[in-house]
Amino acid sequence: MTIETRATTPYDDQKPGTSGLRKKVPHFQQENYVENFVQAIFDVAPKEPSKTLIIGGDGRYFNREVVGRVVAMAAANDCERIVIGQGGILSTPAASNLIRKRNAFGGIILSASHNPGGPNEDFGIKFNTSNGGPAPENITNAIYERTKQISEYRIDPEVKADIDTIGETDLGHLVIEVIDPVADYAALMEELFDFDKIRNLFSSGFTMAFDAMHAVTGPYAHEILEKRLGAKEGTVRNGTPKEDFGGHHPDPNLVHAKALYDTMMKSDGPDFGAASDGDGDRNLIIGKGIYVAPSDSLAVLAANATHAKAYTDGLKGVARSMPTSAAADRVAEKLGLPHYETPTGWKFFGNLLDEGYVTICGEESAGTGADHVREKDGLWAVLLWLAILASRQQSVREIVEQHWLEFGRNYFARHDFEEIDKSVAETFMSDLRAMLPQLGGKTAEGFQVQSATDFAYKDPIDGSITEHQGIRIRFEDGSRVVFRLSGTGTVGATLRVYLERFEPGSEGLDRDVAEMLEPLIEAVDALVGYRRAIGRMEPDVIT
C-alpha cells in the first residue's frame, strides 16, 4: 500500500449537468482533470452503507484508461471492495442494479450516454449514490464546490487491475473483483418477466430486429434476446461495443437509427424493432410500419404493465418529466393512479421510487424505467413490450391504435437546435422569461394562450425546490409548447422545443405528426420569435 498525495490546481468548469460531467475527450485529458473530479466525488460521497464501490462504463474511447485511474484512487480513498465490469463495461442500468445488490455506497459510471465517442468526441463521469440512482443535486452541487477549491488528490499508483480477467484480487486492505457485466442484470430481467412466455412468442415465428448501435447493450442483448429467449441469430445488429460506436452517433432516434426504421417500414420487415443507446438506458420502439414515440411508449407500457409478471398486481403510480407529453397522465387518471410531473433528469424520480409513490417513470428523450433499478433502462422497456406482445397476441400497430382510441392521441415532437452560441441561447431564454407576464390571453394563428410559466418543482418527499426547469406555454385547446436548454451537450448550447397537440376523439388519430404540429409552430414563433432570436429556421434533429 503506497498512498501518494499529489498537488493539483482547480478547474472552473467541472459543474455536473443533467447526468454527470460531460466534455470532449481532449478536455478530460488535461493534466489532473479526471483526478480532480474523481477526488471531489470521494471527498463528498458518504461511504455508507458500506465501503464497496461499483465501477463501469459504456466502453467508449478513454474508458479503460479512466477505469485504471479510478481504481488506483479508490484504493487510496478508503474503499475496501471495488467491483468492476469485465473490460470496464457496465450498462448504466446494470451498474444501478449492482449498487443496490452489493449494498455499495455508490458507483462511478463512465459514459456520455447517447453522445458520440472517439478521440475527439465525448466522455463523461457520473456518480450514482447508494440507492443506485444519479446523485441528487445537493451532492452534485457539493462535488462542484469541492472541485473549485481542490488542492490535492490521493492515489495508490501500485494498484493496477486486470479488468479483462474475471475473479477476485485480495490486496489485504482492498479486494478488486472483476465480474461478468451481464449475468446479474440478465438474472434480474428473468425475475421480472415470464421468459417462457416470450420464448413461445419467438418460437411461433415472431421476428425482431434490435440495433445495439455498437454500444454497451450489445452483449446484454445477445445474452438475453438470442440465447435466453430464443430470438434467431442475427436479431441483434451492431452488437459488438466499439470505442467510437462504429463511427456512428449512438442515439436511438429516427435520425441515427434510420437503418432500423427503414427495415421496419418494409412490408416484409420484422414484427418488432428496437434500439438502445451508448450506455443502455434509452430505447427506441418501432413496430412493422409504425414508429412509437417515447411519450406514447411510456403511456402504452403504463396501460399494459399488468401483462408482465412483475406488475400483475398493478402499478403504484406513474411519473414523467415535464417536457414529456401528458399521454401517461391520461392513463394514470383512467386507472385511478397517482401521477407526477418532474424536471428533466432521472435523479428527480429517485425519491418517488424510493418511497413507493410510483412504479414506472419516463422521459420523452427515450428513457423509460421502473422501480427495479434507479435508472432508465433500455432493455427493460424492450422486454416489457415483448411481454405485452406475447400476452395480447396483437401487433404493435394494433396495440398503439387501440390505445389512441381509448385514451386519445397526444401528437408530440421535440425540435433540437444544436450548438447554438451559448450567450445567444441564454439571452433568448432570459428574454422569454421576461415576456411571460404579457403572454397570457394572447392569440396567434388561432391559438390562444391559457398560461405561460417557468416550471419549478417541489419534491413531495423532501420538500426541495428546483427552479427554472423549462418555460411552458399552454393554449386553451390543450396544446402546449416547452422551451428548455439541454444539460447533456458538450459544445455550445442546445435549445429544445417540445410541441404537443391533443386529439381526443376517434377522428383525427392517424394524421401526420409534422402536419398536425405545423400550425402550433407558426403560432408560438409569432408569439415569441424564437427562430429569429437564435438565427435558425430549422432544427438539427426532430424526435
In words, what does this structure look like?
This protein is α/β, with parallel strands linked by helices and about 550 residues long. It has 17 helices and 27 strands. The strands form six sheets. The chain has a seven-stranded mixed beta sheet, sandwiched between helices. Strands 20-21-24-25-26-19-27 form a seven-stranded antiparallel beta sheet. Strands 11-10-12-13-14 form a five-stranded mixed beta sheet. The longest helix is centred in the last third of the chain and has 18 residues, at about 420-440. The model has no long low-confidence stretch (mean pLDDT about 95).
Key features of this structure:
543 residues; alpha/beta; 7-stranded mixed sheet; 7-stranded antiparallel sheet; 17 helices; 33% helix; globular
Q: What is the total tally of β strands?
A: 27
Apparent shape: globular
Indicate the proportion of strand residues: 15-25%
Calculate the mean pLDDT score and round it: 96
Q: What's the number of helices?
A: 17
